[in-house]
Amino acid sequence: MAINRENNFSEKSTIFPLKVYRILIFFGFAVFLGGALTVPFYYETQTLWYKTGIDKVVLRAGQLAGLFALVLLVLQILLSLRGKFLEDLFGGANLMRRHRTNGVIIACTAICHVVLVLAPEGMGNLPIGKKYWPEMIGEGLFLLVLITVLSSHFRSALKLDYTIWKTVHRPLGYLLLVLVLMHVLFVSESFGQGAPRVILLTIFSGLALLVAVVKTARWRSKS
Questions:
Q1: 194 within 8 A of 202, measured Cβ to Cβ
Q2: Which pLDDT tens digit goes with each residue over 45-79?
Q3: Angle, nearest 10°, between helix axes 53-81 and 194-222?
């Protein structure tokens, strides 16, 4: 009986910090997301200055959808890393499920972003040309997101070899991160300078460092 009590106490003392860590992680994510979604309001783009009524509302909604997709893409990289800390908190299988679900949400928000941003200008007025290279990066990014998500969910139906798919999928995810950074930094005046630009570059630099540390640690453990 004494042994069982000690085991129960040990389990409770272990579970309580995990719950606290989970709450802190969800709170941190909520703060990050909330902060990102305030950018279009405090750092308006010039395109919003010339919009009124429903067009302005739709365009701002499109910007918010794009920022939501950006935050989820950062989360996607963290989920794909499956670091020991997150695996201890949520479990490896749970992280994989969240990774797949998050991918679908990213695709949906990307579609909303494209439709809502183009709607005020007319769906036929696609920005094409050398001077619109940030927008064209966004167009390529959109297509790659759809390809990545669809190939992940319909890999079996498409008869894609798992080893080949996995070899392509991982570096493609990091490429998406680079492309989204370039798109956001140069397509919108909101991130042209000031706090949003500094914070975004800091977050992406920290994420790149984290990926390098985790990958290096795994490589060393295998060698």
A1: no
A2: 888 877 788 988 999 999 999 999 999 999 999 88
A3: 20
- Tokens 């991918």, located at residue: 103
Q: Are 155 and 162 in contact (CB under 8 A)?
A: yes
Torsion sign, CA atoms 163, 169, 172, 174:
negative
Phi then psi for 83, rounded to 5 degrees?
-65, 160
The structure tokens listed for 182 are 């370039």
CA dist., res. 22 & res. 33, Å (int): 16
Q: How far apart are CA 148 and CA 175, in angstroms?
A: 11
Predicted model pTM: 0.84
CA 84 to chain centre: 20
**What is the tens place of the pLDDT at every residue in 133-187?**
988 999 999 999 999 999 888 888 878 888 888 888 888 888 999 999 999 999 8
